Amino acid sequence: MENIHPIFDQILGKADKERLLQQKGIVIWMVGLSGSGKSTLAKSFEKYLHDSGKLTQILDGDNLRTGLNANLGFSAEDREENIRRVAEVAKLFAHCGVITICSFISPTTSIRQMSREIIGDDLYHEVFVECPIEVCEKRDVKGLYAKARRGEIKNFTGIDSPFENPENPSLIVNTDLKNLDDCLQDMIKFFVPII
Ligand SMILES: Nc1ncnc2c1ncn2[C@@H]1O[C@H](COP(=O)(O)OS(=O)(=O)O)[C@@H](OP(=O)(O)O)[C@H]1O
Ligand SMILES: Nc1ncnc2c1ncn2[C@@H]1O[C@H](COP(=O)(O)OP(=O)(O)O)[C@@H](O)[C@H]1O
């Protein structure tokens, strides 16, 4: 950090960008097992917001693990580094006034604590996309659970790598109990008043 001088006296700040966009820059952090419904819900919520005239950005494994985080795997250390980088990027977007929807397994309390600290308590809103692993495994959207059961993928979340349920999320959506549209309504009801 020696010889690094962050700029704190920018002419334009978050509030200026928010005024331009007529919205609040926040981070919506979707947490859940593979197959729980994070991406599906993130995409439909983004579409809803876009159609309402809001500027949004989704960050998920598909657009980060193939680029910025292409050198990372699924060890505990790599997952932590993955989430650290994502949280830093999400913070930049949110400070630009963008409604930023992050969709990552984010499997442990300590990893989520880190992203909350990076982004800031006031901007970080955690959504637990809750779904029993039996249901996720039955959905097996990408065939990864079957591979993990056959031992072809190691450190698979929920099989041989831990997933700790969020302790105090802002919102819980139960994708095994409600259909997509009802889960979307839960998101709309919670978030629209604060953006
Ligand atoms: N070992 C292992 N464990 C879990 N998931 C795996 C693994 N290997 C590949 N995948 C695929 O990677 C996606 C999860 O990446 P994330 O960046 O969200 O994971 S993490 O937050 O860093 O734990 C996850 O995507 P989603 O299904 O969208 O959650 C999987 O498709
Ligand atoms: N209420 C729901 N919300 C979101 N997805 C659901 C719901 N009910 C069933 N699904 C299905 O579950 C699967 C979830 O897959 P995906 O969104 O890729 O999960 P993740 O991003 O968490 O890995 C999709 O096939 C989706 O159609």
From TrEMBL:
Catalytic activity, EC: 2.7.1.25
Residues given in the record as ATP binding sites: 32-39
Entry keyword annotation includes Transferase: yes
Active site: 106 (phosphoserine intermediate)
Top EC group: transferase
Name of a matching Pfam family: APS_kinase
Reaction catalysed by this enzyme: adenosine 5'-phosphosulfate + ATP = 3'-phosphoadenylyl sulfate + ADP + H(+)
Gene3D superfamilies per UniProt: P-loop containing nucleotide triphosphate hydrolases
UniProt keyword list: ATP-binding, Kinase, Nucleotide-binding, Phosphoprotein, Transferase
The APS kinase domain, residue ranges: 24-174
Role according to the record: Catalyzes the synthesis of activated sulfate.
Protein's UniProt name: Adenylyl-sulfate kinase
Organism of this sequence: Agaribacillus aureus
